[in-house]
């Protein structure tokens, strides 16, 4: 059985990640797509297709042939992003006549995918959906139930008919390839995967489902990255390759990268990740923080935040629930009159002063 990961660059840009494929965004210093690859590999799925766009050389270059992730990768080009169902259509030749797993590259599901495969086989289904109860189902595809059976799926409904969301892991019988070309473009201009599920039900096919409890999805909001970082760090195992000076306090699971130095009266409370070649002096790094590579922190306080590579912070003001983009600088204001904050704010940013 093969797997497919749609990972083409989307039209949305972020002030902290411009001109890069979002699937390379780091969670605990690891690009988010790696978590999907690892989940598939653990389930024994090692032939994986990656759907990319014509300008996704950065993603293709990072992933390579997949050998270092224990998988074999093939790349399928989607000329323009027209939705998840369109990505599957683009991969029809690669997927062939076998059942397959579709795993969105911006989703993390902790449940073992092998369990989903077993449920799919036992149910003799055309499709298996992994559902999760969420607080805001209107942001996702939402199943419509009749008793315990799915009778349709609505994409981002104004009034959801159930508290469940369809997560980003699906299993399909190859029969779906015959139905995909019959889908119509939605009001968003996409070929919606939810429409495929509704069409399967209308054709009398068995759309089976299982409930999963631990799931994270990037919906494009800055807080999603902070939540995803926290989600990943909850399972962290500590490892120290860098150096920690006498007097530094390190508690809980903390991973410290090679070449990094933690000096002075610094305190690091896990779960937290510190990348390679960082210099940290007299600073506090609180739980659920990820510090990238080549970062300098001097007298800083950071908690529940994502700090990208090459950042420099020299300010005693607490930074929490924040994202510091690559190469950014945070420094204390000069104590001259009149005083003020000197800031550069990217499009779509949120600043609390």
TrEMBL record:
SUPFAM superfamilies: Nucleotide-diphospho-sugar transferases. Coiled coil: none annotated. GO terms for molecular function: transferase activity. Residues 14-234 form the Nucleotidyl transferase domain. InterPro entries: G1P_thy_trans_l, NTP_transferase_dom, Nucleotide-diphossugar_trans. Keywords: Transferase. It holds the Pfam family NTP_transferase. PANTHER family: GLUCOSE-1-PHOSPHATE THYMIDYLTRANSFERASE (PTHR42883), THYMIDYLYLTRANSFERASE (PTHR42883:SF2). NCBIfam families: rmlA_long. This is Glucose-1-phosphate thymidylyltransferase. It comes from Candidatus Terrybacteria bacterium RIFCSPHIGHO2_01_FULL_48_17.
């Amino acid at each position: 059985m093969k797997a497919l990961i749609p990972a083409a660059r989307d039209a949305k840009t972020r002030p902290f990640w411009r001109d890069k494929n979002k699937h390379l965004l780091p969670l605990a210093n690891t690009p988010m797509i790696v978590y999907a690859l690892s989940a598939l590999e653990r389930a024994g799925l090692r032939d994986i297709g990656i759907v990319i766009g014509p300008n996704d050389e950065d993603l293709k270059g990072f992933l390579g042939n997949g050998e270092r992730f224990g998988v074999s990768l093939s790349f399928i080009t989607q000329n323009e992003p027209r939705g998840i169902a369109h990505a599957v259509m683009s991969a029809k030749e690669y997927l062939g006549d076998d059942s397959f797993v579709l795993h969105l590259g911006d989703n993390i599901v902790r449940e073992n995918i092998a369990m989903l495969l077993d449920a799919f086989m036992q149910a003799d289904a055309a499709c298996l959906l992994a559902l999760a109860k969420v607080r805001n189902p209107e942001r996702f595809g939402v199943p419509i139930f009749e008793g315990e059976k799915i009778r349709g799926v609505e994409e981002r409904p104004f009034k959801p008919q159930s508290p469940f969301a369809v997560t980003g892991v699906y299993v399909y019988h190859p029969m779906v390839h015959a139905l995909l070309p019959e889908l119509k473009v939605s009001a968003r201009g996409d070929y919606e995967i939810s429409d495929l599920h509704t069409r399967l039900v209308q054709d009398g096919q068995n759309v089976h489902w299982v409930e999963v409890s631990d799931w994270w999805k990037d919906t494009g909001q800055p807080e999603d990255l902070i939540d995803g970082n926290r989600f990943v760090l909850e399972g962290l195992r500590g490892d120290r390759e860098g150096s920690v000076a006498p007097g530094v306090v390190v508690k809980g699971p903390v991973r410290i990268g090679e070449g990094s130095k933690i000096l002075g009266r610094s305190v690091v409370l896990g779960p937290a990740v510190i990348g390679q070649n960082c210099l940290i002096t007299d600073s506090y790094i609180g739980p659920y923080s990820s510090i990238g590579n080549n970062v300098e922190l001097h007298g800083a306080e950071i908690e529940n935040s994502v700090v990208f590579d090459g950042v420099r912070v020299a300010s005693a003001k607490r930074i929490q629930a924040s994202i510091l983009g690559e190469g950014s600088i945070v420094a204390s204001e000069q104590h001259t009159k009149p005083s003020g904050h000197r800031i550069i704010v990217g499009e779509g940013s949120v600043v609390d002063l």
